[in-house]
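Researcher: Predict the fold of Outer membrane protein assembly factor BamA.
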Amino acid sequence: MQIRLAAALVTSLWAISAHAIDNFVVKDIRVEGIQRTEAGTVFSYLPVKVGDTMDDEKASAAIKALFATGFFKDVRLEQQGNVLIVVVEERPAISKVDIVGSKEFSKEQLTTGLKQAGLTEGRIFDKSVLDRAVQEIKRLYFSKGKYAVQIETTVTPLERNRVSITFNIQDGDVAKIKQINIVGNKAFREKQLLGLFSLQTPGFFSWYTKNDQYSKQKLAADLETLKSFYLNRGYLEFNVDSTQVSITPDKQDIYITVNISEGDKYTVSSVKLAGETIVPAAELEKLIVVKPGEVFSREKLTETAKKIGDRLGNDGYAFANVNAVPDVDKEKHQVAFTFYVDSGRRVYVNRINVTGNTRTKDEVVRREFRQMEGAWYAADKIKRSRERVERLGYFSDVNVETPAVAGTTDQVDLDLGVTEKATGSIMVGAGFSSSEGLILSGSVAQNNLFGTGNQLSLQINSGKINKVYSVSYTNPYFTPDGLSLGYDLYRRDINTTSLSSVATYQNSTKGAGLRLGIPLNEKDSINLGLAYERFDLTVGATSPKQYQDFVTKFGSSNDTLRADLGWARDSRDSLTYPTEGMLQRVYGEVGVPPGSLEYYKLSYQQQWFKPLSKNFTLMLNGEIGVGNGYAGKPLPFFKNFYAGGVSSVRGYDTSTLGPKLNDPVNGVVAAGGNKRIVGNAELMFPMPGLQNDKSVRMSAFVDAGATFGPDDYLGRYSSFSFKDLRYSTGIALSWISPVGPLKFSLAKPINPKPDDRKQVFQFTLGTVF
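Model: Structure tokens for Outer membrane protein assembly factor BamA follow.
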């Protein structure tokens, strides 16, 4: 009723404003009262032109049109002879917007929200826009669980028809979820169902996860998780009947009640295929994971439809449609499914478009593609192309879209969008132990030199124990078919005299080498290498007798022509955040004539990733190594295998597990061995509260390992024995942070021996450029 009265009042005002105007032919139009608005702007909105006959209808339309611009708070039409006079009173302009008292959000964040609501400096002031801006600020606070926020606005008139607006904000306290109730559950305990929710009542980690703060979006996601839980366990008729969210008058506590109907549990009676399959039906039937007699599972139903769709996509049927149609028998509590397959039209890829690569050259991305332009669409090749681009390590995000080509029914474009990240790095490794204190090492690398995909690295370590100066360059596409070529030039100086945990000696190694990588297929590659190395050894009276005997027999200066041969198979789905797949590596190093050192070392590693659920991944890693001399010569002691430390068995000091020697000065010290075994079992999971952030990952691990060789000073480690293995357990955190990759581990040795050196906390850190 009030709205109708207001409308009638405005209409009457327009009528009054125009009533005094008699019909006349407009010879001229004059605008009065404008200060900021241009006269031309008024003329552009005015539906009356010179030469028109002015009457009550046109006067009313003119007033309506000018009011509708929002520029004016009053409009009058007057007549002076044949001149139409438009008298306006402008709305004030917003001179300044000030925000006072906000602690939850910065002024910049709130100013952005005000702009989205249409309130910003320089705009025309409108009370309705101000009300909308207040609601926008409240929305931001509500998203943070602060329902008690109070906002007062003050509009202060200024000279020259301007106003200043001040938002005085009192944040209030965060409203916490006091209780969540599920009503109607019979098959599962409420505690089990609430464990599926991301929303929780306050707990120990709530200060970090914020999962005790209500969010409408989070509740909707939790209800979908609850529905999936039931549907994957046979409850075909499950339904969320209603949801009530209430807040206490003081805006501090929130209560959530979810009412559900479970329905009956269903089993699958039969499964069959129908429609145009194109691919032999027998082949598609092997992809069906829903089996008769099993409890109904929507997850398996979706997986089956996806597998069939992907299989058809591999043959070019990009728009294949697979629908599972149920036939429900409510009396027997059974359901039969028919997968109707519509292959659609076979399509091919018209063009491949790469966007977002501002530094990386197009050819660096395109050479990783296995899907070709002009070829039939192949889903598996597109997936593999995306994986290969992602594995380059140059991009933080890789997205693939296949939009249809306008005007065609059998063509799609392949749009690859990438987000580049820093590919240069300055890495620093650090560890701490009671015997050595802080140990640092560093390197500088650029993995995408000038956007070409070539790699250049410089390692400089000026520590008193290890000094390393090396330069490496690699061209991963020396030939168009992916043959890689690399060069290495290095010097490594080792001086263990200041270490109380490793046998005393000094060794300076100078070398230069050539590397060749040969891809065999998508997963397998062979690596060949040839390097010349010269070793200058220094041992003294404080060195173990075994080391002194080696120098006496073979001299303090030796050289070798080192031949390397390796094979690798890598099927991991990601290099930075793997969740499934396997890595196998075999690496051999042989010292061959005419070098004076003749020896061999052979290593094997197998790493396996298995997703246990959406958030949990199991990683198993095993490594073995064996080495020896030949032609009557031993394995040089400085080529021994070592174990212990952040890269093998955490919780023990670096390179200290295995045979020990009795050093005249430092007593019992590690000497390494010619055999090595290491095993790791790691359960990886997202950081609590950061489930969707792939830059952060935690893990719980168990490590085992040791080295073996000739008897040590107590006659141990001559051959492999489980009693000589060392074990540790702990937790680890890895984070691809804005300043570079960070890794932390906190480990507890399980079975340390009295002469073992422990290193409980270890970490590596770096920065990118």
